[in-house]
Design brief:
Number of strands of chain A: 8
Largest interface: A-B, 16 and 19 residues
Distance between the termini of chain A: 32 Å
CATH architecture of chain A: Alpha-Beta Barrel
Bound molecules: FE2/S2 (inorganic) cluster
Mean pLDDT of chain B: 85
Structural class of chain B: mainly beta
Number of domains of chain A: 1
Mean pLDDT of chain A: 93
Low-confidence stretches of chain B: 125-129
Largest sheet of chain B: 7 strands, mixed
Oligomer: heterodimer
CATH class of chain B: Mainly Beta
Number of strands of chain B: 10
Number of domains of chain B: 1
Chain lengths: ~350, ~150
C-alpha cells in the first residue's frame, strides 16, 4: 500500500461514505426459528424442507467471500461484528445498505416462501437493523408470487430501516412483465427502491441460449441479464406507470450501459409506436429512475477513461459506491475506490451523495 | 416565387398522394380530408425518400396498455428508419422543434387563375405558372405548389 493510496483512502473516509451493497447471509434455517411460525419450524425439523439452500454465491467459490470474512462456524456475511470491523469501520461508512440474497424465489410452495421471507425480514430487523444504526436493509420477498410479495412489502415496508426491496436479477420473467405490477406498486407505495441484484434461482437457465458450463460464465455473464431487465422495465413502461419508481442495479457492472443507451435512443425514434407509453428518450428514464452500484468494478482503472464512461453515461449521478462485502472483488480498500485523479465533486457524488439523494438517506 | 402546377385535384383525392419532381426537387403532395400538404421527399435523418413511406395514425398512450389512436393517415413514416412526421406540420414526433421536414405552400387554383394574368383568383399571385405538363383547361381546378427560389 503506497502512502498516497493510504492518504487518499483516509481523505475519502473523512468525507463520509455510503456503501450501497453489503451482503448478509442467513447462517442456517435454524437461525430463523425465532421468526418462524410453529408449523414451519416443525416442517423444517420433521421433513426434508430446509429452506432455499445455497445462494448465488457458493460458499466455496473464490469470488464469494474474502477469507477473513468467515466467522467461526458460520458463512461469510453472517456476523455483525465482522461486518462492523471489516466493512463499516475501515471505510468510515455512515450508512450501509444490506442485501440478503436468501433465495426464497426457489421455494415452490408459496406459503413456505412467504414464511421464510417474513422470517428473514424479521431476522434482519432484530439481528442487524436494531443492533447497528448505520445499517439499512432490503426486504426479501417471494418474487415468484408478486401478490404475496406485495403483502410482505406492506407488512414490513414501514420500518424505517428498510429502504429497498430486493429482487434477484434472474427471474421467471423480466420484472417489467405485468404480472409483477402488484410488487412494484407496493414498493412505490412504501417509498422503497427496488434493488435488482446478482443471481437468483428461477427454473430457467442464466443465459437465453442455455446453461453455461463454468462459474466464470455465470459470474461475468450476469451483466447480460441486467441489460435485459433494464430494457424490459423501460419498454414495458414501468417508469411511465410508476413515475416515482426508483431502481438500483446491484453488482451489475456499468460500462455496458452507454452502448445500450445509444442503441435504445436511436431505435426508439422509429419503433416508438409499438410502445407509445414510452414518451421520452430511453436514456432519460435511466437518468431519472436508475442507479448502479460500483462493485464488481468493470471500468478501467485509468482516470481519463473512467471520465469518458461517465460522460457517455450522460450523468455523474448514476453510480453508487459499494464494497460488495464480503464478496471478494478487490484485495485492498484502495482498489475499491474510483481511480485517482478524479474531480473531488465527482468522488463525493459516487462515494456518498448519489446514494444519499436516491435513497433519501 | 415560381408556382408550379403539379396535379389536378382529381389526381389526389382525400387520402391520396402524388410525388412530383419540381426544379430538381422531389416533393410529395398529400390530401388529408380535402386539405393539401406538400413535403420535401427527403428525410431530415439520412435523406430517405420520406414521401414514399406508409401513412399511419397518431398513437398516444397515457399508460402502458392503453392506446389512443387518432388522425388516421396523417402521420408519415420514413421507409428507411420509420421516423414519424406529421404531414400537417412537417414536424417529427420525437423532436418537433428541431427535426422537421421542409414544407411547401399548396393552393388550389381554378384554371382561370392560371390562364389569366390580368385577373388572377383572389389570394394568388399572377403567373408565370409552370405548367408544362398540364394542358390547363377552364373547367379544371389545379393544385399549385409555391416553391421559394
Ligand atoms: S432516413 Fe428517414 S428515418 Fe432515417
Amino acid at each position: 500500500m503506497t502512502a498516497t493510496a493510504t492518504d487518499r483512502l483516509a481523505q475519502i473516509v473523512a468525507q463520509g461514505v455510503i456503501d450501497a451493497d453489503l451482503n448478509v447471509v442467513v447462517p442456517s434455517s435454524a437461525d430463523l426459528f425465532p421468526y418462524l411460525p410453529e408449523y414451519w419450524r416443525e416442517q423444517i425439523n420433521q421433513t426434508g424442507f430446509k429452506g432455499p439452500g445455497e445462494s448465488s454465491y457458493p460458499a466455496s467459490a473464490e469470488t464469494s467471500a474474502r477469507p477473513e470474512a468467515k466467522p467461526d462456524g458460520g458463512p461469510a456475511g453472517s456476523s455483525l461484528a465482522l461486518l462492523q470491523q471489516q466493512a463499516l469501520d475501515p471505510w468510515g461508512t455512515e450508512i450501509g445498505i444490506l442485501t440478503c440474497a436468501y433465495a426464497v424465489e426457489a421455494i415452490h410452495n408459496p406459503d413456505a416462501a412467504v414464511a421464510m421471507a417474513s422470517a428473514v425480514n424479521d431476522w434482519l430487523i432484530a439481528e442487524w437493523l436494531d443492533k447497528e444504526p448505520r445499517l439499512r436493509a432490503s426486504i426479501v420477498v417471494p418474487s415468484q408470487q408478486p401478490e404475496l410479495a406485495a403483502r410482505e412489502i406492506d407488512r414490513v415496508g414501514g420500518h424505517p430501516g428498510f429502504v429497498q426491496v430486493y429482487l434477484p436479477v434472474r427471474a421467471e420473467a423480466p420484472y417489467g412483465n405485468r404480472r409483477y405490477l402488484p410488487l412494484l406498486d407496493a414498493a412505490v407505495r412504501n417509498d422503497l427502491v427496488v434493488g435488482i441484484g446478482f443471481g437468483g434461482s428461477p427454473p430457467n437457465p442464466p443465459t437465453p441460449s442455455g446453461w453455461p458450463s463454468y462459474y466464470m460464465e455465470e459470474w461475468a455473464g450476469m451483466a447480460s441479464i441486467f441489460q435485459s431487465q433494464l430494457m424490459n422495465l423501460i419498454f414495458e413502461g414501468v417508469f411511465d406507470r410508476f413515475p416515482a419508481l426508483r431502481v438500483t442495479l446491484i453488482e451489475s457492472g456499468f460500462t455496458w450501459l452507454p452502448s445500450l443507451l445509444w442503441r435504445w435512443n436511436k431505435e426508439w425514434k422509429g419503433l416508438r409506436p409499438q410502445t407509445p407509453w414510452v414518451r421520452r428518450l430511453p436514456s432519460e428514464y435511466v437518468h431519472e429512475h436508475v442507479r448502479l452500484t460500483t462493485q464488481p468494478w468493470d471500468a478501467p482503472p485509468v482516470e481519463a477513461q473512467f471520465l469518458q464512461i461517465i460522460d457517455q453515461l450522460g450523468s455523474d449521478e448514476l453510480l453508487l459506491f459499494s464494497t460488495d462485502y464480503p464478496h471478494w472483488q478487490y484485495d485492498t480498500p484502495e482498489e475499491a475506490l474510483p481511480p485517482a485523479g478524479l474531480p473531488d465533486a465527482l468522488i463525493a457524488k459516487i462515494m456518498r451523495d448519489n446514494a444519499r439523494t436516491f435513497y433519501r438517506l | 416565387m415560381p408556382k408550379h402546377v403539379v396535379a389536378t385535384v382529381e389526381e389526389i383525392p382525400p387520402g391520396g398522394r402524388k410525388v412530383v419532381e419540381i426544379a430538381g426537387r422531389s416533393i410529395g403532395v398529400f390530401n388529408l380530408g380535402g386539405d393539401y400538404f406538400a413535403l420535401r421527399n427527403r428525410c431530415p435523418h439520412q435523406g430517405g425518400p420520406l414521401c414514399l413511406g406508409k401513412q399511419s395514425g397518431f398513437i398516444h398512450s397515457p399508460l402502458p396498455g392503453e392506446y389512443e389512436y387518432s388522425r388516421q393517415g396523417e402521420i408519415l413514416k420514413c421507409p428507411w428508419h420509420s421516423w414519424e412526421f406529421d404531414i400537417r406540420t412537417g414536424q417529427s414526433w420525437f423532436d418537433p422543434a428541431r427535426v422537421r421536414v421542409r414544407q411547401y405552400d399548396v393552393t388550389v387554383a381554378p384554371a382561370q387563375a392560371l390562364l389569366d394574368r390580368e385577373a388572377p383568383a383572389p389570394g394568388l399571385e399572377p403567373g408565370p405558372y409552370v405548367a408544362e405538363t398540364y394542358p390547363v383547361t377552364v373547367e379544371q381546378q389545379y393544385i399549385v405548389i409555391d416553391l421559394p427560389g
